[in-house]
Amino acid sequence: MDWLMGKSKAKPNGKKPAAEERKLYLEPEYTKSRITDFEFKELVVLPREIDLNEWLASNTTTFFHHVNLQYSTISEFCTGETCQTMAVCNTQHYWYDERGKKVKCTAPQYVDFVMSSVQKLVTDEDIFPTKYGKEFPLSFESLVKKICKYLFHVLAHIYSSHFKETLALELHGHLNTLYIHFILFVREFNLVDCKETTVMGDLTEVLCGSGAGAGAQNHVKER
Ligand SMILES: [Zn+2]
């Protein structure tokens, strides 16, 4: 579990983000694509009578499975050659091992670290208890925050490096829907620091509206 205590620092890789390079995922014809019209803003709100930790646990586990599934659709294109670092636009993420040591890794390795660590956590009965009466650990919320941060990195990598492949598979509607649901959820409970998410700020703005939640508008709907 110590791996979660390490900080994931992102730093620019020195390369200029090809400003001219069009971000395909921002094209209106693609941002419009969804698989459902659900009001995710209402869907993410903690229902009365449900314990907050239970709600965080069940949603986090579900997002983990969905992000894993979405990544698996493009994983054959995410190799040590195509993605030598865990890049998201002009930002690079590094993995930190259980001793807090920075690990140089490719994107598929990073995703593998994320998925296997999260898998371990969500199936740990002491951290994600499923049995009635069993309590959540005190560190639960901070663990959920770490998990969400890493899941965000994976989602962002799919957009920034594998949107073309996602489009070819016609899975961009699924990706957008997952992204919207995930962002609104982490916003609702303040689970991911905005310094982590700014790298995808332009997409978030288009898909989910800006702001910290309450007053956010769904710009896409107004088009
Ligand atoms: Zn990749």
TrEMBL record:
GO terms for molecular function: metal ion binding. This is MOB kinase activator 2. GO terms for cellular component: cytoplasm; nucleus. Pfam families: Mob1_phocein (PF03637). Binds STK38 and STK38L. Its main location: cytoplasm. PANTHER family: MPS ONE BINDER KINASE ACTIVATOR-LIKE MOB. The gene is MOB2. Zn(2+) binds at C78, C83, H157, H162. The lineage of its organism: Eukaryota, Metazoa, Chordata, Craniata, Vertebrata. Belongs to the MOB1/phocein family. Stimulates the autophosphorylation and kinase activity of STK38 and STK38L. It comes from Ornithorhynchus anatinus (Duckbill platypus).
